[in-house]
Amino acid sequence: RSWLKYLLDKHTQWGIDFLERYAKFVKERIEIEQNYAKQLRNLVKKYCPKRSSKDEEPRFTSCIAFFNILNELNDYAGQREVVAEEMAHRVYGELMRYAHDLKTERKMHLQEGRKAQQYLDMCWKQMDNSKKKFERECREAEKAQQSYERLDNDTNATKADVEKAKQQLNLRTHMADENKNEYAAQLQNFNGEQHKHFYVVIPQIYKQLQEMDERRTIKLSECYRGFADSERKVIPIISKCLEGMILAAKSVDERRDSQMVVDSFKSGFEPPGDFPFEDYSQHIYRTISDGTISASKQENVKVDAKTTPQSPPLTPTSLFTSSTPNGSQFLTFSIEPVHYCMNEIKTGKPRIPSFRSLKRGVSLIMALEDFSHLPPEQRRKKLQQRIDELNRGLQKESDQKDALNKMKDVYEKNPQMGDPGSLQPKLAETMNNIDRLRMEIHKNEAWLSEVEGKTGGRGDRRHSSDINHLVTQGRESPEGSYTDDANQEVRGPPQQHGHHSEFEDEFEDDDPLPAIGHCKAIYPFDGHNEGTLAMKEGEVLYIIEEDKGDGWTRARRQNGEEGYVPTSYIDVTLEKNSKGAVTYI
Q1: How many other C-beta atoms are found inside a 10 Å radius of the C-beta of residue 347?
Q2: By its UniProt entry, which InterPro entries does this protein fall under (predicted)?
Q3: How far is residue 80's CA from residue 176's CA, in Å, rounded to a whole number?
Q4: Are strands 552-556 and 562-566 parallel, antiparallel or unpaired?
Q5: In the 8-state DSSP scheme, what is residue 550?
Q6: pLDDT digits over 1-37, tens only?
């Protein structure tokens, strides 16, 4: 019996140890999943663009695809965290709780078995004591009987001794009978308890231990299944993440990227015309034997030389003067004049101050203000960006004015809340800002209309070497100074503004605003209102204007459709874009 109990004790303890070992395995797997998810998130964070960075990357499809892959990888890391949480809650936590309950139940069953055995041992001791006492009394009764018989047969024994021995015999015989009855009762009780112990109590305890071990096995089976289910539940979402990566890879468009490079760096300048033929032979005097004819020809040549204006020398402005066979002159730009202007500002030698130099400096400042120093294509984009910023500022000031007026009305109706006059300086300042912004918008729109008007007439221009580049009144002469004498310059069609250069006549640009980021729709949006853009949950859009505090972001689909979407409905990712020195191609 003790050997069987030992085996049961050892087996149940082994079951609990195995359960705890599997729980430790699950815990280590959870730590692996958590570390894996953490490392993936750190990797995504390392390669994701910084939203606060000023240098934004170009919105190439390859960059967008990579950023989409990073987003999908971040979602994948989130699913690994879900797996870890599910395992921790459904498997590891359940195993630890069940192991504690199992230890308590096993301890209770073993204690019941020990108590039953102790009770049976006690019954056996009582029965054994009564048996020994009965045996001892029987021996004492036999001794008393032998003593009585010896004295009764002894003729020398007195009657009193015989009577005394007889009484002793009767006493011992009575005590032996009582012990016999006690022994019989104890024996019957022990046999009953022993039968109950081995046929009722112990089998019941063993059955409880068996049921406990079977429940442990069932719990392990459930935990095995839960361990696999934790992984299987996230497989559909992980598959979507992988499908998103594949779609991002398919969205890479090399032609679109090339077009974006062209749109970002094209200057809009027309290719230079053909170089004119420079006839130097008109100054060569041929010697002819006929003196009259020679003299006449020489005289004509001298007259032509006097009447023909001399060509001005070449200057750093890259303007050169050429002569045609009929004696006329024209000026041609071979390099962008703005380069020379900027070099004059940075590295030019100091000159004598004059009204003409002051006029040139003012013209340069105006050129920087209206971006006339940029190529037409870049100038149009800069002006459009400035107009958009001014419109946003105007809207903000208008909202502030409305808020101040409402507050003023509240103060007038409820004077205890505040003094309406205290808001007047702020209202005046806001109105001044609104007027200033409107003037700025009007001025920039005029410049934008001028650029678009110039680029609209590019088809009427002829690409030939006989078209002279214009030099208007008040412009810089080839020597680098300004002149007001119209006779000293070659005339042409007048320009719209004196401070604009001829090289600003550019190609028209109807391209959409460049994308500054992308977003993913978190919630669907109907977009019934005018100017809004409908979107579906999970749809990826391009960002062309950030949220300026009004709660709306301007976005564009891949098909070119644009509109505003709620900022709270999307997950915005602003990418880096190359800024700084502009390269004109």
Answers
A1: 7
A2: AH/BAR_dom_sf, F_BAR_dom, FCH_dom, FNBP1L_F-BAR, FNBP1L_SH3, HR1_CIP4_FNBP1L, HR1_rho-bd, HR1_TOCA
A3: 84
A4: antiparallel
A5: S
A6: 567 778 888 999 999 999 999 999 999 999 999 999 9
CA atoms within 13 A on the CB side of 314: 7
Q: Are 301 and 281 in contact (CB under 8 A)?
A: no
Nearest to 451 by CA among 545, 386, 361: 386
Helix (H, G, I), strand (E, B) or coil at 49: coil
Using one digit for the tens of pLDDT, what is the confidence trace for 243-286? 999 999 999 999 998 988 888 777 766 777 787 877 777 666 55
Dist CA 353 CA 147 (whole Å) = 164
- Written as one letter, the residue type at 448 is L
Half-sphere exposure at residue 40, Cβ-oriented, CA atoms within 13 angstroms: 19
Angle at 381 between CA 380 and CA 384, to 5 degrees: 85
* Residue 506 and residue 268 in contact, taking contact as beta carbons nearer than 8 Å: yes
Report the alpha-carbon distance of residue 56 to residue 577 in Å, rounded: 3
Query: Residue 506, Cβ neighbours under 10 Å: how many?
Result: 23
Residue bearing tokens 């040139």:
360
**Taking the CA atoms of the chain, what radius of gyration do you get in angstroms?**
55
Neighbouring CB atoms inside 10 A of 482's CB total 18
How many Å separate Cα 299 from the centre of its chain? Answer: 86
AA identity, residue 279: D
Mean per-residue pLDDT, 123-136: 91
The answer to whether residue 468 scores a pLDDT higher than 80 is no
Residue pair 317/469 in contact (Cβ under 8 Å)? The answer is no
State both tokens at 396. 């903000």
d(CA 45, CA 49): 8
Percent residues over pLDDT 70 in the chain: 71
Residues comprising the chain, all counted: 585
